[in-house]
Amino acid sequence: MSDEVKRQVQANFSKNKEAYVTSSTHKNQGDLDLINEWLQPDQKWTVLDIATGGGHVAKALSPLVGSVFATDLTKDMLQNTATHLRTLPNIHFVVADAEALPFLDESFDAVTCRIAPHHFPSPETFITEVERVLKPGGFFLMIDNVAPQDENLDHFYNTFEKMRDKSHVRALKVSEWKQLLCGAGLSIEQELTRKKTLPFPDWVKRTTDNDQERLNVECYFQNADEKAFSYFSIKKEKDRIQSFSIDEWMVKSMKEA
Asked: In whole angstroms, what is the distance from residue 222 CA to residue 249 CA?
């Protein structure tokens, strides 16, 4: 099952490699500035950016650290990103599985992963690998979409994400992430939960294959109950879905020295 999911991830991101470079959601500068503010990177640092996608985090960190290793499971995606970032010589691109990182223990001063873990079949293995490659006292900064604590809202959210993107596995709840981090010996230093508003037309088009798939997702939104409509701030204009909001969690944790 895990291998099948990863093949779907590769197919999806190969097909949409340019969309992730240009996506307004993924290149959000406020997000990137906050990463630098929280990490306070040092010019001597070696940083790992897991599932780099369009390379936005790697690009933001590049001038502030010694070197960045930008990894992704999808070679086509990484090749495209490397072309876009070819003027930044301290970024090294490596095809790598987030759940089986090809690096020695205690190699990195910081590890980042942004808007990607909901694609990973085994979040527990991912967190174990992050802890392994971090130096003692090193930082792990993660940003990802998270599911609401309410079971019905969790189901609604993960269902429409899977409808729209076959490579979506599951967005975890914040409580589930905290359990994994603490279980791996990564102590939480800083956290922030916030609402992220997404433009529906751009969001749904990025990963669907045809108009029928897009329509199916929109119908699912249209049929949401009052609780879901309110929680996800679903906005309509002329009976078409225009935008909605989801929960995003940003966390900085530290490996015990």
From this structure: 26
19 vs 118, higher pLDDT: 118
List of residues 6+ apart from 181 with CB closer than 8 A:
127, 140, 187, 188, 251, 253
Q: How far apart are CA 107 and CA 135, in angstroms?
A: 6
Give the span between the Cα atoms of 127 and 167, in whole angstroms: 19
Average pLDDT over residues 177-192: 98
Query: Which pTM does this prediction carry?
Result: 0.89
3-state secondary structure of 97: strand
> Is the separation of the CB atoms in 113 and 51 below 8 Å?
yes
Q: Which domains does the chain have, with CATH numbers?
A: 2-148+166-196+248-255 (3.40.50.150)
Q: Which residues pair with 244 in a beta bridge?
A: 198
Cβ distance 23 to 17 under 8 Å? no
Which sign, positive or negative, has the C-alpha torsion 86, 8, 31, 37? negative
Spell out where the chain has E strands.
46-50, 67-72, 91-95, 108-114, 134-146, 186-199, 235-237, 240-255
